[in-house]
Amino acid sequence: MEPNREEKFCKESRATKILRVFPSDLNDHNTMFGGKLMAYIDDVASISAERHARAECVTASTDSVDFLLPIREGHSVCLTSYVTSTGRSSMEVFVKVVAEHLRTGERMIAATAFLTFVALGPDGRPVPVPKVIPESPEEKKLHETAPARAEARKRHREQSKLLAEHLRPDRLWEMGN
Ligand SMILES: CC(C)(COP(=O)(O)OP(=O)(O)OC[C@H]1O[C@@H](n2cnc3c(N)ncnc32)[C@H](O)[C@@H]1OP(=O)(O)O)[C@@H](O)C(=O)NCCC(=O)NCCS
């Protein structure tokens, strides 16, 4: 087992997933189905979170998945993720989705996403995670801009909690007016 460390490099949590786009991955616009890509994003990001924390991790939130360009049949899709910044028990994970046209070799950033994972101890309560040391220009940029995203996330979480107070778990057809 790895010894617990107070700081870890971004590259230590890096995870990669490469897939070929098949006809069964497409939606009715003949581009890759967004829900399928989101599942892959959560999957690869969860590996980065657990590599960083070396503890059980759960997805606390996905702040954004930006679909920048359509992905089509004949492309390969490469998802890369790593932890960009941490709080006490939470980790921001960045995912970059690069599509490659397999015949021409043209590559493009097709989507990006930020997710937050929380590390849990054996009792299911949040536990501390190591800090992050960014090295490359991309890692440094994402690390520097993380506090602003964390602040926006905190505001969003407060608003979601307030909104949840007005929601009921009833099925729609059981709700009165
Ligand atoms: C995520 C979860 C463990 C947080 O538990 P909690 O009792 O609210 O914990 P706390 O309030 O002590 O927060 C713990 C950390 O999570 C962060 N956090 C909690 N909810 C968050 C959210 N929606 N978005 C971002 N961060 C969040 C807090 O900011 C805190 O970060 P820090 O330790 O770095 O300061 C809990 O809400 C949970 O289990 N959610 C369900 C997770 C799940 O089922 N995911 C899908 C399948 S993996």
Automatic annotation (TrEMBL):
<dbReference type="GO" id="GO:0052816">
    <property type="term" value="F:long-chain fatty acyl-CoA hydrolase activity"/>
</dbReference>
<dbReference type="InterPro" id="IPR033120">
    <property type="entry name" value="HOTDOG_ACOT"/>
</dbReference>
<dbReference type="GO" id="GO:0009062">
    <property type="term" value="P:fatty acid catabolic process"/>
</dbReference>
<dbReference type="InterPro" id="IPR029069">
    <property type="entry name" value="HotDog_dom_sf"/>
</dbReference>
<dbReference type="Pfam" id="PF03061">
    <property type="entry name" value="4HBT"/>
</dbReference>
<dbReference type="InterPro" id="IPR006683">
    <property type="entry name" value="Thioestr_dom"/>
</dbReference>
<dbReference type="InterPro" id="IPR040170">
    <property type="entry name" value="Cytosol_ACT"/>
</dbReference>
<dbReference type="GO" id="GO:0006637">
    <property type="term" value="P:acyl-CoA metabolic process"/>
</dbReference>
<feature type="region of interest" description="Disordered">
    <location>
        <begin position="133"/>
        <end position="161"/>
    </location>
</feature>
<protein>
    <submittedName>
        <fullName>Acyl-CoA hydrolase</fullName>
    </submittedName>
</protein>
<comment type="similarity">
    <text>Belongs to the acyl coenzyme A hydrolase family.</text>
</comment>
<keyword id="KW-0378">Hydrolase</keyword>
<feature type="domain" description="HotDog ACOT-type">
    <location>
        <begin position="11"/>
        <end position="123"/>
    </location>
</feature>
<feature type="compositionally biased region" description="Basic and acidic residues">
    <location>
        <begin position="137"/>
        <end position="146"/>
    </location>
</feature>
<dbReference type="GO" id="GO:0005829">
    <property type="term" value="C:cytosol"/>
</dbReference>
